[in-house]
Specification:
The structure holds 2 protein chains of 2 kinds. Chain A is an all-alpha fold. Chain A contains 15 helices and no strands. The termini of chain A are far apart. Classes of the chains: A mainly alpha, B alpha+beta. Bound molecules: protoporphyrin IX containing FE and copper (II) ion (CU).
């Protein structure tokens, strides 16, 4: 090349296009989404993609249920069925549960602690995109995984992928590798987000917000972030070990070469049990904000609620082998893990009683968020009690891996987590979009979904009692399971219109909803002090607080909280 | 109840097809049952109390149309109340822990008598291999045991030694006992002590691949006399094939790859990848319970196992129609 440069005397540097402002054309919208580092947009993107994956995984669940309507039904091939329940479970945990809770954390934590963004906005965007592509990677297995003749496409080893079923000898092709890589990738995103949450809450709280004045919502997410940071490394480690086994001749889990199948279970559940609490504590977090506001009383026993949460998190690190009561541990081992598991019931019980205590003597407003929270309390009570039954080792020898377990964890994950997520969505929707969600549509959603939910999952307790194992693609007639499976499938058919009402409500209210104003619920935490939707910088002037309920203090200067705390 | 087939040893016994864990007919299922009932009752009481409280609160403290806009009294907590509702759950937990650890010990550390029957069960993708080391018998999928007794003097419990040839499986016959996993490279043990004759149904309870759903279990509990008869028959030599078709079937069986995977008595057919066929016709089902063992199903299975049990690890042997019929005829002499 010649060394001279050509200079155009008329050339002007074009003014940089402002990214993420106009949002007029599609390409702007996309740019806006891809380049944003705003915690609120990322939060909504997390929730939106979580809902998207929820629909996909929900369709798979529906097809599973259709297959199980009749005994010996031939609607789905066994391999197709096995892929469905694996993808359903994996997606619901890693692509629905995790992003939904991180979405709420992202959107709300900075506003609740009166700051302008997360501590590391770019890391935040990175976390989202890593999660999003991990989801796409998982589903891409349907196209990319088939390798050998007769080898599965999508993963079909179950969401906890017990070895040695995942060994090369039993899982040919590449489906298991897609599963492994997707989870590894998603884990990176979750770690990034958790570190971000911790740094944000520890370093960016507004003036006056001591740890003891943080909304319980934020407190619970601090605990969740710690749990993620502790629990994810074992998961990532065992995924890497599995890949080493499959491709580099390692023998960690390869039983045919002297490896240990149970080792995988330890690794997996050391992650897996805390993961359950990682998913449910955010549900509690949401309930902690909603129940007081609609009871018109402060949360009962704030310090105890924090202590109980920390206790739950701590104990949850020592209970993992309650998923393994049938692997043949010694009676001592079984007893130890039974005790640690049962002990969790104590702080959990305290939480339930504190919620009841919050409502006691209050004035209950049955707005949509509160209705979902009340259903949550009822359903979580059932889930907790079936959990206690499962912790009774001898009972678990019968119930483990039966449909009873399926019922139990759906009461946790849907009955508790998903219900609080619905509550949270209805509660903060006016904040995020400036318009109220439609109450009538919301009630249709609530009743259809609740009836459908109980009809789907309650009978599964009974089929479990009658000896029906989980993850079976078919069953023979005459085992006493038909009616319970049929009720269960009908329940799903009722849940579906419920979800449609929900989705429709989100769209409809965006355009037609009533104007919300800044503080439609007459609430007390800082997010209600700014406009709806909040500006990019959240607060013009960063606020200063003197108590746990800064807006209460503002509204009741004669009777402020800070006098009593 | 259905499930009674004209064929197979023990086919005339009452069947317990609905494997209801609340109708145990054996120890340790019965011991588990007692503990479970207690736990159920405790949980039911807690449920009624707490759900009742919730309902009461919802009704009593709902905002009434006549309410003014005044806020209710703001209560922040109460140490005494917190203490009360911490102590009660702790007490309940202690009770549960005591009950649980006692039953764990009773079941797991039970001393079995010297003469307990021993059965080694090896899980395979998607069938069960069954050994009787004390009798030198090998069979598959259907487990025969003698009925025991509630009277400890006369009881003869059965010990199950559980292993796996490939992935993890789990042995679960709810009316006899809780489940225990079969794990490669490990040996697990469990025991049953049934006191009612009959055929008990169960399943593999750990997801183990494509046909996990059709890895069914049958435990045939019969009188000690009938059990001994069954044992004698299992040990007796198989009568040689008689008709030309049966003889041709035998030739075809030995000429094909069948011998690589299956065992038939003291012959060159010594494969161990698939179920032992020595006394095939004394079983009630094929394919680990996927279908009753009768002429039609056997024909279909020999023609192409993938019809009855798609994905199973026995390949289609690409036989001609007359070969299928001949081999089936030969197999039907194995009793
Ligand atoms: C529309 C609502 C849902 C329906 C109808 C549904 C139904 C089912 C069914 C039928 C199974 C298979 C059970 C088996 O074959 O043993 C299953 C498994 C599972 N579900 Fe759901 N489900 C729903 C929502 C959820 C949600 C919201 C979550 C979690 C956030 C979830 C988590 C799981 C998990 C972890 C499994 C176990 C997967 C496995 O066995 O590998 N489900 N569900
Ligand atoms: Cu199995």
């Amino acid at each position: 090349m010649a060394s001279e440069t050509i200079v155009d005397p008329d050339f002007k540097v074009p003014a940089p296009e402002r990214v993420g402002e106009e949002g007029k054309t599609w390409s702007h919208v996309i740019q806006n989404l891809v380049f944003t580092v705003d915690h609120k947009k990322l939060g909504l993107m997390y929730i939106g993609s979580g809902l998207l994956f929820f629909v996909v995984a929900g369709i798979m669940a529906t097809l599973i249920r259709v297959q199980l309507f009749f005994p010996r039904s031939t609607f789905l091939d066994p391999d197709v069925f096995n892929r469905f329940f694996t993808m359903h479970g994996t997606a619901m945990v890693f692509l629905v549960g995790m992003p939904m809770i991180f979405g709420f954390a992202n959107y709300l934590i900075p506003i609740m602690i009166g700051t302008r963004d997360m501590a590391y906005p770019r890391l935040n965007a990175f976390g989202f995109w890593v999660f999003f592509f991990s989801g796409l990677l998982l589903y891409f297995s349907y196209f990319g995984a088939p390798g050998l003749y007769n080898a599965g496409s999508a993963p079909d080893v179950g969401w906890f992928a017990y070895s040695p079923l995942t060994a090369k000898a039993f899982s040919r092709g590449h489906s298991t590798d897609y599963w492994t890589l997707s989870i590894l990738l998603g884990g990176i995103g979750s770690l990034a987000t958790s570190i971000n949450i911790l740094v944000t809450t520890f370093c960016l709280r507004c003036k006056g917000m001591t740890l003891g004045r943080m909304p319980l919502f934020v407190w619970l997410f601090v605990v969740v972030a710690f749990l993620v940071i502790i629990a994810l490394p074992p998961l990532s480690a065992c995924q890497i070990m599995l890949t080493l086994d499959r491709y580099l001749g390692a023998k960690f889990f390869d039983t045919q070469a002297g490896g240990d199948a149970v080792l995988w279970q330890h690794f997996f559940w050391i992650f897996g049990h805390p993961e359950v609490y990682i998913l449910i504590l955010p549900g509690f977090a949401i309930a902690n904000e909603i129940i007081p506001v609609f009871s018109r009383k402060p949360i009962f026993g704030y310090p105890i609620m924090v202590a109980a949460t920390v206790m739950i998190a701590f104990i949850s690190l020592g209970v993992w082998a309650h998923h393994m009561f049938t692997v043949g541990m010694t009676s001592l081992g079984n007893t130890f893990f039974a005790i640690s598991t049962m002990v969790i019931a104590v702080p959990t019980g305290i939480k339930i009683f504190n919620w009841l205590g919050t409502m006691w003597g209050g004035k209950l407003h049955f707005e949509l968020p509160m209705i979902f929270c009340l259903a949550f309390l009822f359903q979580f009570l059932i889930a907790g009690l079936t959990g206690v039954m499962l912790s009774v080792v001898p009972f678990d020898w019968q119930l483990s891996d039966s449909y009873f377990v399926v019922a139990h964890f759906h009461y946790v994950l849907i009955g508790a987590l998903l219900y609080t997520l619905f509550a949270g969505i209805y509660y903060w929707y006016p904040k995020a979009f400036g318009r109220m969600p439609n109450r009538k549509l919301g009630l249709w959603h609530f009743w259809l979904f609740t009836i459908g939910f109980h009809l789907t999952f309650f009978p599964q307790h009974i089929s479990g009692f009658l000896g029906m194992p989980r993850r079976i693609f078919t069953y023979e007639a005459g085992r006493g399971w038909e009616i319970w499976n049929q009720l269960s499938t009908i329940g799903v058919i009722i849940q579906i219109p419920g979800i449609l009402f929900f989705v429709f409500n989100l769209i409809y209210s965006y355009f037609k909803g009533e104007e919300a104003g800044d503080d439609p619920w007459d609430a007390w935490t800082l997010e209600w002090a700014t406009t709806s939707p909040p500006p990019e910088y959240n607060f013009e002037k960063t606020p200063e607080v003197r108590s746990r309920r800064p807006l209460w203090d503002l509204k009741h200067p004669d009777d402020p909280d800070w006098k009593f705390e | 109840m259905t499930g009674v087939h004209a064929q197979g040893a023990g086919a005339d016994l009452p069947t317990h097809m609905v494997a209801d864990m609340f109708k145990p007919l054996s120890r340790p299922a019965e011991m588990i049952h007692e503990t479970s009932l207690l736990v159920l009752v405790i949980c039911a009481v807690i449920f009624v109390v707490v759900a009742g409280l919730l309902l009461y609160i919802v009704v009593r403290f709902r905002k009434k149309a006549t309410d003014n806009t005044q806020e209710p009294p703001q209560i922040y907590g109460s140490t005494n109340i917190e203490l009360a509702w911490t102590v009660i759950p702790i007490l309940i937990t202690v009770v549960l822990i005591l009950v649980t650890s006692r039953t764990i010990g009773e079941v797991q550390n039970a001393k079995l008598p010297e003469d307990a029957l021993q059965i080694r069960v090896v899980g395979h993708q998607w069938w069960w291999e069954v050994h009787y080391p004390q009798y030198g018998i090998i069979t598959a999928n259907e487990i025969h045991i003698p009925v025991s007794s509630k009277d400890p003097q006369k009881a003869r419990p059965t010990e199950l030694i559980l292993q796996s040839a490939d992935v993890i499986h789990s042995f679960w016959v709810p009316q006899l006992a809780g489940k225990t996993d079969l794990i490669p490279n490990r040996t697990n043990k469990m025991w049953v002590d049934p006191y009612t004759i009959g055929t008990y149904f169960g399943n593999c309870a750990e997801y183990c691949g494509t046909q996990h759903a059709n890895m069914l279990l049958r435990v045939i509990v019969d009188t000690p006399e009938n059990f001994e008869k069954w044992v004698a028959n299992q040990k007796a030599p198989v009568p040689p094939p008689q008709t030309p078709q049966e003889i041709e079937g035998r030739r075809l069986y030995y000429a094909n790859a069948c011998v690589n995977c299956h065992t038939i008595g003291e012959s060159v057919s010594k494969g161990i990848f698939g179920p032992d066929l020595t006394k095939l016709m004394t079983r009630q089902t094929i394919g680990a319970g996927v279908a009753p063992l009768n002429h039609e199903n056997l024909l279909s299975w020999v023609r192409d196992p993938q019809i009855l049990k798609v994905g199973c690890l026995m390949p289609n042997m690409q036989l001609l129609d007359n070969e299928v019929e001949a081999i089936t005829a030969y197999l039907e002499t194995l009793k």
